[in-house]
Amino acid sequence: MSGVNKRVLPGFGLSLGFTLVYLSLIVLIPLSAVFIKTSTMSWQEFWDVVTAPRVVASYKLTFGASFLAALINAVFGLLLAWGLTRYTFPGRKIVDALIDLPFALPTAVAGIALTAIYAKNGWVGSLLEPLGIKIAFGPPGVLVALTFIGLPFVVRTVQPVLEDLETEYEEAAASLGATRWQAFQHVVFPALFPALLTGFALAFARAVGEYGSVVFIAGNIPMVSEITPLIIITKLEQFDYKGATAIAAVMLVISFVLLLVINGLQAWTARRTGRAV
Predict the structure, then answer these.
(1) Which residues contact residue 189 at a Cβ distance below 8 angstroms, ignoring those fewer than 6 apart?
(2) In b/e form, how buried is each residue of 3-25, taking b as 16+ CB within 10 angstroms?
(3) Tell me, what's the pLDDT at 165?
């Protein structure tokens, strides 16, 4: 080979150039346009828009419900991945395929279906209504929709790690007298935690920007069940482009900071456990 290191892809310079151009066209330029449009506002105008009571209420609902939905998905997504990986049961392949349904299902269709199920005259809503529990057309409906669309991210992130994790480690722990919970806590969970954090971050990021499935089930009541993406869409429909981009910039910054914190925690955990992220 005369010392020539042949590669499938072209040289570093060409590959890096293509990567930067592609990344700029798809991500950097559209995101920078948000900040450029926002910069045309005065600081007072910007502050008045992003701190309006209606907008602040939407922040609390959007980020609070997204965080709670991602937390719920982290718990039950881990249980689902565990069941699909460690057990064989009738209909396992069907359950495995259904987990990907939120990926393929249009969000508007998901919103309509969830509304029909959880409305007071729906299959589930009619059972909860006599108990005084209202899901649709309120904050609980937002949580249900965000949980629905975020579940696959956790399951599909954790499942490959579980499949690669040898059961011999658990058996060795059991042979040394560890209970099942101790084996999970000290052997399995440390290996899964970085992947679980990744799934949590992906589910959270997906939930923050969700619109289609939420807008139908939320009821969109100002100060109660109105999400931030809906306010952005409303301002765009009113041709208030500066207001829309100002709120979008705040959402972008907060989401980036939160994801940076989560990814930093994930990297720290990976170093502590000696496993690659």
Answers:
(1) none
(2) eeeeeeeeeeeeeeeeeeeeeee
(3) 78
